[in-house]
Amino acid sequence: MLIYIKVFVIAFLIFLAVDLIWLGVIANKLYQNEMGHLMKKNLNFVAAFLFYAIFIVGLSVFVIIPSIESGSLIKVVLLGALFGFVSYATYDLTNYATLEGFPLKMVVIDLIWGTSLGTLTSLLTFLIYRGVFKWHFYIFIWYYFYILFCGSWLHK
């Protein structure tokens, strides 16, 4: 049972850090320009947290833990990519099919992002859990939260 808790916490922190960098810094203007007409003014943090938690539970149970147990780096990469793709395809293709004005360009970009995020989160969690670069992870998390709360990009 301890493996599930450890994997969930590691994966959640990685996913949160990487996705917030993507959404808050790298692709912020892209999402505003392409989908601003569809976006809420205020983010629903409860719904966002629930998505993150549910996604990470699925990623942990179906991808990361089986890969740790088998010791397979290839398995964690391929299944992480597949899980990210399928999860994001569910969202993006449903929106493209049902929402007026949901851009095809964003479907493609978001599918690539979901695939990348699933792969990266799975791989880094796998490596950290197996002790490949423990201290690097803690330094990364500390630096990320330092930038998040003290970084100049927040004040622009």
UniProtKB/TrEMBL annotation:
Q: What parts of the sequence cross the membrane?
A: 7-25, 45-65, 72-91, 111-129, 136-154
User: Which keywords does the record carry?
Assistant: Membrane, Transmembrane, Transmembrane helix
In terms of InterPro entries, this protein maps to: DUF2177_membr (IPR018687)
Q: What name is this protein filed under?
A: Predicted membrane protein
Q: Specify the species.
A: Acholeplasma hippikon
